[in-house]
Amino acid sequence: YICIKHKRRNSSTATVRHCRNQETPFPLYVGMMIHAHTRKCGIKDKLFQYGIGLQLFTDLANVVCEKCKKSQVVNQTNLKTGVFITGAVDNIDHNPSSNTATDSFHSTGISLFQNPNFDGQGTGVM
């Protein structure tokens, strides 16, 4: 056991490595954290009944589904128009060799990436 005592430093400047406006809303963060630690949705649902949670997942999913139905195209919701897109395609093969395996899986995965040249480039699709 190694113990080293250090004086606590009261620093008013904290390094932030992400945009603060893209942080997860606090009630959503608390609900996800509780579910991750306990794996029980009951606590999260009880907090939601008292107005401490958000019904964000359902609302976002409904908006995305309506947009896909309207445009008849399924795409990522965070893509922006006017920004160059790079695509990557790869095979997904799962052929289990165990004695108890009953099925195999074959599909294609497609990933789209955007790298804007400057902040604020492009306009949001959603």
Can you put this structure into words, describing what you see?
This protein has 126 residues and is an alpha+beta fold. It has a domain of 88 residues. It contains 3 helices and 4 strands; from the N terminus they run H-H-H-E-E-E-E. It has a two-stranded antiparallel ribbon with strand order 1-4. The protein starts with 25 loop residues before the first helix and ends with a strand.
Q: What is Rg?
A: 22 Å
Low-confidence stretches: none
On the 0 to 100 scale, the average pLDDT is: 73
Instruction: Report the biggest beta sheet as strand number plus sense, adding barrel if it closes.
Output: 2 strands, antiparallel
List the helices and strands and how they pair.
Blueprint lengths: L25 H13 L2 H9 L6 H16 L8 E2 L3 E10 L10 E10 L8 E2 L2
Antiparallel strand pairs: 1-4, 2-3
Helix pairs in contact: 1-2
Compact description:
This protein has 126 residues and is α+β, with helices and mostly antiparallel strands.
List keywords for this structure.
alpha+beta; about 130 residues; two-stranded antiparallel sheet; extended; single chain; 3 helices
